[in-house]
Amino acid sequence: MANTNDNVISLEELQAFREEVAKREGKPKPRKPVNANYTSFVINKSQENTLKFTKENEVKSIKVFDANGKEIKYGTLIKAGEEYTYKVTAFDEKNPKKIEFDKKTVIWNFWLDKTQKQLSKKFFRISTKTEVNEFSKDFLVNKKNKNTRTDEISKKAILYAKSGVIEEDGKKVSILKVKFSKWLDKEKIKVVAYLKTRKTKGDTVATRILKAKPEIIDAYWLNAEGRKITNTGYKQDVYLYLKTLGLTGKTLETLVFDEDIHPNPLPLVSSDDPIAWKNNKIKIDKRDVIKQFKIGNKKRYEGAQADEKAEEPLFKTLVDFGVKSTYNLELYINIKNGEALKIENLKQKYGRLNLYTDEKILNVFFAKKEDEIVQGDAPYQPVYIKDKKTGKSIKTKTKKPPETKVPYYENLDVGVIGQKVQLVASCANLEGKEVLFKLYEKEPLLVAKDTVIGVIQMVPK
């Protein structure tokens, strides 16, 4: 039976309202009982038969503070993994008598401004969450299934959250304590507080950009098929793939070395050979960057190749050192300015690549050829701007990373009769030689078994 007192509602009515809110927000039906418990904050006490409740007041403004109580204003970056406190600094107080209860029922949501359209304007409820370790994989990568992506964000974007009411200067204040994941690097995180109506702008929404600590998540080489490789021949173009966080807007200076290990004198001593790479600057303009590296020919590596045949240990008859001689070049990348950029967990060696002299056909496949823009293995180009007063072009200090179009061969598993496709042979050290393709049907439909299929060869211009 409904309560006739306007100032109170029954537990059943409150539960019905909570179910209505959950349905509107696409959340699971809330469980009974409805008693809330904010551990370490003010304990919400329920009365024996009724709870005070109102739909009249609304949040008017919120602010953000760091762990030291310093206000983080709009335009100031917040850091991944650090605790921030969002406070409701004012309510509209249409019904002052009920405001103390309303402070305990503030709802907190967030959404990601950059990915909002991709997620069909998805909002995420911030619920209490005990602290968890940072996640090892990037959950913001594009996923084919939009629902999978939103589910990942919902579960992993927040490392810790606690909402409730604290006592501050003799007043009760509604707050949210929260830590965000590093994978939200460069995202505009919008946090909103409300009682009955969620807004998307104004003083009830706090927009802050998250910055992760500088880190190289992954670094490896790709071939023209977009496949990760650890071996290649000479005269190939390969592509250094970098996945970074907290480095947007920075330029990495890379060095290439050939790894040498000499068994004498003891202990093992490394004296790696530098490989000339003039165009070694990589502009980090987004999380995933691809840089072209022209391997060149054997002459480029003559100095490094000279000491590839390791000496035999002096005391081989007494001790077997287990060191095998190698004749191949083993390249790796070193980040020259890594310490200056304060990169976390900086490694000495990234992206190992074995250069061999064997003549090989590594892979043969049908493909669709596309052009992909990458940072080229070419000198940086200066940027000019026009002076508004004189109309003359002025060279700026900013330099534009060179871009180049490179062929990308997407492997095709399915095709139709009449379709134009590329036949690709991925080779090493076979430049100037001819590769002959012969096509057969797996199941004899067009021609007899073991009969070569005729094709119309279209030589690219």
First-last Cα distance: 83 Å
**Which consecutive residue ranges, at least 5 long each, have pLDDT under 50?**
1-9, 34-52, 263-268, 311-321
Residue-averaged pLDDT: 83
* Number of alpha- plus pi-helical segments: 4
Shape: elongated
What would you report as the Rg, rounded to the nearest angstrom?
31 Å
Computed structural class:
mainly beta
The major β-sheet equals: 6 strands, mixed
Number of strands: 28
Beta content: 35-45%
What's the helical proportion of residues? Answer: under 10%
Please, could you describe this protein's structure?
With 461 residues, the chain is mostly beta strands. Among the domains are: 157 residues; 147 residues, Immunoglobulin-like. It is 7% helix and 37% strand. The chain has four helices and 28 strands. The strands form eight sheets. Strands 14, 16, 19, 20, 22 and 23 form a six-stranded mixed β-sheet that branches. Strands 4-11-10-6-7 form a five-stranded mixed β-sheet, with no helix packed on it. The chain has a four-stranded antiparallel β-sheet with strand order 3-5-9-8. Strand 8 and strand 9 form a beta hairpin. It starts with 7 loop residues before the first strand and ends in a 33-residue tail after the last strand.
